[in-house]
From TrEMBL:
It comes from the Bacteria. It comes from Streptomyces cynarae. It holds the Pfam family MarR_2. This is MarR family transcriptional regulator. Residues 14-146 form the HTH marR-type domain. InterPro entries: HTH_MarR-typ, MarR/SlyA-like, WH-like_DNA-bd_sf, WH_DNA-bd_sf.
Amino acid sequence: MSGDDEGPVAADALDRVTWALRRAELAVQALKEQRLRSLGMAAAHYSLLISVHAEPGLTGAELARRLNVTPQAVASLVARLEDRGRLERRPHPRHRHVQELHLTDAGRDALRAADAVIAEIEQQITEKLGPEDTDRLTVLLGQAADAVRES
């Protein structure tokens, strides 16, 4: 091999928009984990709770698809949240082997506290960007998601 062979990636690989998206995602995720820890919660717990809040009665399989995780990961999270009294399973009205997920009062309280933490992170970002750039970023991210979905 000679010294002028191409490397394993293009020279601009770390300047790509997809890498910028990933860096931002990792930074936000790390901050969520850090700040939610004081509530005894992980970002995955928040994602699950807010999903069940938005669509009460979701099944574990539906949640797994929405959160892009395995059914086993959802089952583990559900068991943990159920043990903490934040989530309850109820029989599905039509399918006897399926259980729906619902927040308990403790789950709503936990979600409320966690959402306040997430709102603080959101505020930290939007204050840094300002209203115009925040709006522009929101539109651009939506367009990026649409572009990927269309392919």
